Structure formats: C-alpha cells, structure tokens
Amino acid sequence: MRISTRAAIAALSALTALTLYGVCGAAAFAAAADAPKPLQPTPAAASTIAGQAMVLGAARAGSRIVSVGDQGIVMLSDDQGKTFRQARSVPVSSTLTAVSFADAKHGWAVGHWGAILATADGGETWQIQRLATAQDRPLFAVQFFDAEHGVAVGLWSLILTTDDGGKTWAEQKVAPPAGSTKADANLLGLFADAKGRVYASAERGLVLRSDDRGHSWEYLATGYKGSFWSGIALPDGTLVVGGQRGTVYRSADDGKTWAPAALDSKNSVTGFAAAGSELLLVGLEGLRALSKDDGQHFSVTLRPDRESLTAALPGAPGAWLLWSRRGFIADVPR
Question: How far from 93 is each of 117, 124, 188, 235, CA to CA, in Å?
Fold first, then answer.
C-alpha cells in the first residue's frame, strides 16, 4: 500500500502528525479492510464545549454561518459569528473536513469514511447520503453549484458527482497525470469560478479543472512539485492556490500559466477568503496574510499565540471570521 503525505485540512485532525496523514490513513484503511463487518456510525454527541472542537471547513448558508470539524461537530451562527450553537442532529461522529451550501437551506458536508451528509434546514439536522466504512478513504472537499449538482473529492483521486441533489453519487475516473501510470494523487481542495468551472487543488503541485461540474477533468501544469491544500477563484477570474511551506501560485489566464506569489512565510497555507478588493490567506502557526492586488503580493502577520488557522470567511464590514484547531477564535478587523 502506498504511503502518501497529507497535511492540513483533514490532516489537522491529527495535529501530532500534521504531515503524516498518509500513514494514519493507510493504517485506518488496513484495519477497516480486516474488520469482520463494516463499522457502524454513531451520532455526534452534544457537548457544552463543542465550540472548542477543531474546525476544518466553514461556509455561509444565506445569512447563517456553518462550520464542521472534529467528531462530527457542526456549529451554527445566526449573528455573524458573535455566538455559535451546536447543530441539533448529526448522524456521524467521525471528522468532517468540508462543507458547501447551494442556498440558505440545502447543504452538504463530507469527511472521513467517505461520508457525505446533507441538510435541508440550513444545517440544523443532517442525513447520511453516503458512507463507506469498509475502507477509510476520506473525502477532503465538496462543492455544490446548485441544489442538484455537486462534486466531492478525496484520497487517491476519489471523485464523486451528483446530479440529483445527492440521492445518487457516481464515481468519476480521471486519467493519470503526465509522467504517472495511475491517477492516485490526493485531491485536497475544491473551488469554483464565476463561469461555473470547478478546480481541485492537489498534491504533486497539481491543479485540476472541470468544465462540466466534475464529470471530466484536465490537469493544469503549475511547475510546482509540493502539495496545494486549498485555492480560490477571485471575481476577475484570477486563480490562487496555496499549500506546503508557504507556497502560493496564481494564474490570470484560466490556469494556462502559473507564477509564484510573493509571500514572506514558510508556514503552510490552509485556506483563503476574499472580500471586495482584499484576499486573505490563513495557515499554520498563526499565519494571516492579506493581498490587495489579486494575490500577487501578501503582507504577513502572525498571531501572537501561533494558533494554527484552518478556515476563514469574510465577516461584517471590516472583519474576517477565523477558525482553528480550537474552534472559532476571532473576527479580525481588516
């Protein structure tokens, strides 16, 4: 079995081995394969300290903010992050890695054991649409275009699409990248542009693009060899991806060519958020960096506590909403 590297996003669920997700994932996969029967999911437990659980993904559901993370914990805020409360019902207690909403009511979360959960009430209650407990082949990212069409990606080039709101999910095959004999790169992030195209950030410096909502993909050559953990498409079409050791690349021509951005940090990048003319990136060891020129240059600040940041969203005017391995931590004035 191949041992691969996977840090941040889902790997932050094992902070004692941020860059060794592949080892942990492989062990879990093997253990599950040897088990006499599939594991049975247990619901996420209600907890008075749920707000301190690690968060790996966050999204807006209309005016509501929804975050997901460790132990299947889903947190909701209806006051722009001033207060959070735990979702009423989540049917799994495994790690959730990402969340996407098509509108204020309909959303999907993905995570370990290949879980795909759906909500039709803005995140209050969730139902299982897919669970593959016979193998821990986690999903790392999900993107919905509307209430019917979505895509999820994960370990070893796992790609799933739905055209019926998640009633059925179909696995899509992708060709091996140049120089490889099989398609087994871990797909770590998803982001869509204003034209409806979706991009996957991946290990080995790969970025993939789909023009048909995830059914077929092409590789975009970036020139980088490390892992890209996340990315974002800006309103003008500029693409920005980031990952290991503070590496950030950008493209202003739909991914045909890529160039490194100026980021004076070796802290790995875990997420992006954009508001107006500003682009924020966050990362490990308290990394926050702001760009006002579409990701060409970033001004870097570090949190004094060096708390690793895992996700970000635009907040109220003049503020960002930030999450970490200790949950929601701050709205930082812009």
Answer: 12, 16, 21, 36
